[in-house]
Amino acid sequence: MSALAVTKLVLQIILVVLSLLLTLLILMHKGKGGGLSDMFGGGLTQNAGSSGVAEKNLNRWTVIIALVWVAIVIALGLFAKFGIA
């Protein structure tokens, strides 16, 4: 197995893990009202929401992980386009 094949496999595994983590982070965000989050009970927990600092950190982590996810998707697309591994 070549080094590029190992790299591609590692990127695919990281992509799956980041996809699951990104889904969980997005679901942890506080609903802004009027959307699906209120339909499924998000409106009941408005007073028990997280503090401003925790929400900012959650936003930061979500954006960082989303950017890494996009970079890995692009890298795997380039692997596929050029027939590497």
Largest sheet: none
Structural class: mainly alpha
Mean pLDDT: 84
Domains, number: 1
Helix percent band: over 70%
**How would you describe the shape?**
elongated
**Rg, Å, rounded:** 18 Å
Return the string of H and E elements: HHH
Cα distance spanning the termini: 9 Å
Beta-strand portion reads: under 5%
List segments where confidence is low: pLDDT < 50 over at least 5 consecutive residues. Answer: none
Per DSSP E runs of 2 or more residues, the count of β-strands stands at: 0
Tally of helical segments: 3
Key terms:
single chain; 85 residues; mainly alpha; 71% helix; elongated; transport; membrane
Question: Summarize this, please?
Answer:
Keywords: Cell membrane, Membrane, Protein transport, Translocation, Transmembrane, Transmembrane helix, Transport. One of its GO terms (molecular function) is protein-transporting ATPase activity. With 85 residues, this protein is an all-alpha fold.
Structure description:
- This protein is mainly α and 85 residues long.
- The chain has one domain (1-27, 51-85).
- It has three helices and no strands.
- It has helices spanning 3-28, 36-39, 52-81.
- The chain is elongated and about 50 Å long.
- The N and C termini lie close together (9 Å).
Q: What order do the helices and strands come in, and which of them pair?
A:
Elements: H1 3-28, H2 36-39, H3 52-81
Helix pairs in contact: 1-3
